[in-house]
Design a protein that fits this description.
Subcellular location (chains A, B): Cell projection, Ruffle membrane; Cytoplasm; Membrane
EC number (chains A, B): 3.1.2.2
Largest interface: A-B, 39 and 39 residues
Radius of gyration of chain A: 15 Å
Strand order of the largest sheet of chain A: 1-2-4-5-6-3
Oligomer: homodimer
CATH superfamily of chain A: Hotdog Thioesterase
Structural class of chain A: alpha+beta
Number of strands of chain A: 6
Shape of chain A: globular
Largest sheet of chain A: 6 strands, antiparallel
CATH topology of chain A: Thiol Ester Dehydrase, Chain A
Number of domains of chain A: 1
Family (chains A, B): Belongs to the THEM4/THEM5 thioesterase family.
GO cellular component, one term (chains A, B): membrane
Protein name (chains A, B): Acyl-coenzyme A thioesterase THEM4
CATH architecture of chain A: Roll
Chain lengths: ~150, ~150
Amino acid sequence: MKAFQDCYPMKYAHCYGCGRENAMGLQLKSYWNGVDTQAHFTPGMQYSGGVPGHVYGGMIASLLDCHGTASAAAFACRERGKDMTQEANPARFVTVSLSVNFKRPTPQGVELCMRAQLLGVEGRKVRMSLCLLAGDQVCATADMLAIELLPEAP
Amino acid sequence: MKAFQDCYPMKYAHCYGCGRENAMGLQLKSYWNGVDTQAHFTPGMQYSGGVPGHVYGGMIASLLDCHGTASAAAFACRERGKDMTQEANPARFVTVSLSVNFKRPTPQGVELCMRAQLLGVEGRKVRMSLCLLAGDQVCATADMLAIELLPEAP
């Protein structure tokens, strides 16, 4: 199964969090999970919070943000009756706003799961609800609004 | 002038974003700027967004989050009539919620400035308004709620 990020147009594939063209980056990969989406990632032990043993907040926001923008593209394509992974030049979204609620400390050394649920598509904007889990524990939730980049003038 | 993060108790000084004990981390440093606070940081070129030339959203959230938790500690100490940089065991805050609004693309290769303004202290909670600037351009704003860690049982 092709990850959403593996379908990004080459010129938009350099994101540190999820770009396949960024060799130094995290290379997050997002996929369908039924009608929702999901991604899995295990942060390295250097990404500690203030207290060793917990993941730092910036990593949690990064994982939610990158999974969210990829999911926004996939959701928008689906709403338009298309399959993102089959498109030659699929939509590319960026974040307008991201609100993260940190529910409990996120443990290090375990695989994290990020999920996104579509709330609505309106024109170029996609609204989603996201969460980050460690096992069956929800460690963070987020609301996100993403917007599609306009095509460049030829 | 001592940075807020340089006053963190040793056991809380391992944050990837701002811990002085994390040799692999970003080592963000926050200071007073009048009644507000500020920090400066120039992200490495690997921290690109999808489009090279812009900083990725996760880095922006990370810088705001780390500057915010450090500022929360400094603001709380000040409200209690103390100077954080003179305390042997100052307060340590973690994030409850962080809402980031991305106002415009954040350029790479320039020093960024993060600022925090106190909105209110209520018991263990500190509410702040934050922004991230590149030169005189506001690239992102954020609202943040942070909470003081409880002292551990002896």
